[in-house]
Amino acid sequence: MKKYIPMDLAFEHYSRLNHHLMAAEYSKICAEMCKPRYACVPLYESLCLYDQGQLYLPEQVRVIWVHDIERPSDNYLAREMAEMEHDFGFQSSYNIRTICTATAELRQELQAIRELGHEIQYQYEDLVITQGDLEAARQSFRDNLTQLRQYFPEIKAAFAHGVYKSGFDSTEIFKEDGVWKPKLWQDLGLRHPCAELYYFMSVLKSEFDSSFHYFGESSCIGGEEFAEALRSAQEGDIVVFLQHPTWWSDSYEVSELKKVVRGKCFF
Description:
The chain is α/β, with parallel strands linked by helices. It has eleven helices and nine strands.
């Protein structure tokens, strides 16, 4: 099958529903992560380790491994990612939007991810949904979290969905005058004081400074670049390590992905 890059990403994902993982490429990450220099944990487990003073490891690279599931068709890719990670002996977090639970079939894919031992967490976009109305967005967050917990009651953390073209920063629902207020998400149903991942990253950056790193598709495309990013970390470092299943379909050519993503064709 000829590989290609879709020029309308949303249409492509909704019309070609069931993608498959670029397995050989993704395995490069898993093979690197197998090395004893890394200690990989999912998001909420990392919060618990932080509370216990055990997140930092002086002789290993601590990796907090997360995935943002952007579109319903990504559920299939995410499940194949989760299967590979499980086969390699890893657990990670999968952050889901409400649209990813729209049908029983889609939920089944996510439930399969959970059954492999991975975390399911909430990828929120409520300020975009309410077009900037803060109070309505906070109520939307509460309602959507309640809805998702009908299927995944274990959700304990959240990460903002970056709808860049909307002009809204979803994290603003948890701030007052631009300052993070953990009590806001605690009042809406997430109890941990660092349950919002962007906030937790700001805490880690403040505490660990240059020993904290955030690697995602903004800096890495394809398995080799992600593996190289891991190799660049030093023992004692803490890494938040993010992939979007969207960019791991076996229909895509990695070299072309690099051109279009870095050429800002989609964002």
